[in-house]
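Hey team,

Filing this mostly as a record. A colleague (T.K.) asked me to run one chain through the structure pipeline before their review meeting, and I want the input and output archived in the tracker in case anyone asks later how it was produced. No errors, nothing strange. Just documentation.

Input sequence:
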Amino acid sequence: MVMYSAVVLAAGDGRRIGLSENKVFKHIAGMSVLNHALSRFEADAACAEIILVGRRRDFSRLRHEYTADQIVAGGRTRQGSVTRALESVNQQYVFVHDGARPFFTEETLERLQEAMENHLAATPAIPSTDTLRYVENGQLEEDVVRNSLMRLQTPQAFEVETLRRAHALAEERGIEASCDAGLVREVLQEVVAVVEGDRFNEKLTRPEDVPLLEMILDDEDWT
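Output structure:
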């Protein structure tokens, strides 16, 4: 079994969805988005520790309402938050997850653990079903080959020293990325394994995502 540390990012806010507080505190079916996410790691025997990354103004609430082995102050950016969290990781492997994704599955965790037996980095992904085209100067250009495009999800899994090295080099070179798997690929030219994601693993980003997440809980296929 691949034992790992879970880094759960919860240092954002709720402005984009019209909330005055952090969006991970939004309740879906009686439980906060963040608690939904944390409960998945708590139920996984391979998860050795949970490191929660939050804003200092939220520390009191995080300590009293959420279960984590450590709470770390977030950085100025998502990348900065991950960099700080990596200093506290005590396992050889780390799974980095966006706290605003409440409904990743046990199967996703299992696929990532299997991938880490032979790779230094792995990410879940699902195919893009949208029609995609390049747009330039407000006009449609050539088609994008959809078969080769995937929507990346979290949690993303890494051998911890690999991710630390990627973040250190990115800071040195002034590279900023919103995705750790992409950062490892870009900065280190390292192979990143892609495992099957799932359609329930949506992220709370916009106001219309709230009813979508509520519908997911009502879906009979959701476990």
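Quick notes for T.K.: Helices lie at 33-42, 59-65, 78-86, 106-115, 160-173, 180-188, 209-218. The chain has one domain: 4-134+141-218.
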